[in-house]
Amino acid sequence: MHKTLKANTARPPAATIRSQQKRFDTFRRDYNEQRPHEALRMRTPSSCYQRSRRTYPSRLPEIEYPDSMQVKRVQTHGDVIYRGRRLFVTENLYDEYVGIEEKDEAMSLLWYSGYLLGQIDHLNWCIIPTKPTCKLRPASWTGEIQNL
C-alpha cells in the first residue's frame, strides 16, 4: 500500500501543497471506494465499513481520585511536585492529574485514573514502572477493573 501510495502521489511531488493534497484525496477515494482488495474478497473497504453504534461523549468526565490520595497536576516538562521536590512522570500526561498513594516512608504508588503507572522510590527519587499487565484500582475506588 505504501509503495502504491508513494508512486501515485509523491513521485514526483506536486508543484504546490494544494495540488499535492488533491493527489492524496484522489488516491484515498480510489483506494477506499473503487479499488477491490484481495483481503476483503475483492470488495472495497467502503462497501465493508459499518459505522459504530456506540456513542462517544463530546467531553470525557474528569478523573476522580480517592480522598486518601494526593492529586498532582503534571507540569509542562512532565514533572510533578511531590514532597517539595520535582519528580519526572512523563511529558505525555502534561496538564493531566495523577494520584499518589503513600504506602510507607520508602514507597508510594503512582496512578493515572485507574491505571497503576509505577512505584515511587523515595530513597532513590525515581519511579519504578509496573509491568504491562492487569492492574486494579485501589479497593477504595468503585468502578470497573481496568486492563492494560
Write the layout of secondary structure elements.
Layout: H1 2-9, H2 17-34, H3 45-48, E1 70-73, E2 79-82, E3 85-88, E4 97-104, E5 107-112, E6 115-121, E7 126-129
Antiparallel strand pairs: 1-4, 2-3, 4-5, 5-6, 6-7
SS-based class:
alpha+beta
Name the overall outline: elongated
Low-confidence runs: 143-148
Largest sheet: spatial strand order:
1-4-5-6-7
Overall pLDDT metric: 89
| Relative helix content | 10-25%
What does this structure look like?
The protein has 148 residues and is α+β, with helices and mostly antiparallel strands. It has 2 domains: 2-48, no CATH class; 54-148, no CATH class. The protein has 3 helices and 7 strands. It has helices at 2-9, 17-34, 45-48; strands spanning 70-73, 79-82, 85-88, 97-104, 107-112, 115-121, 126-129. It has a 5-stranded antiparallel beta sheet with strand order 1-4-5-6-7, with no helix packed on it. Mean pLDDT is 89; it is low at 143-148.
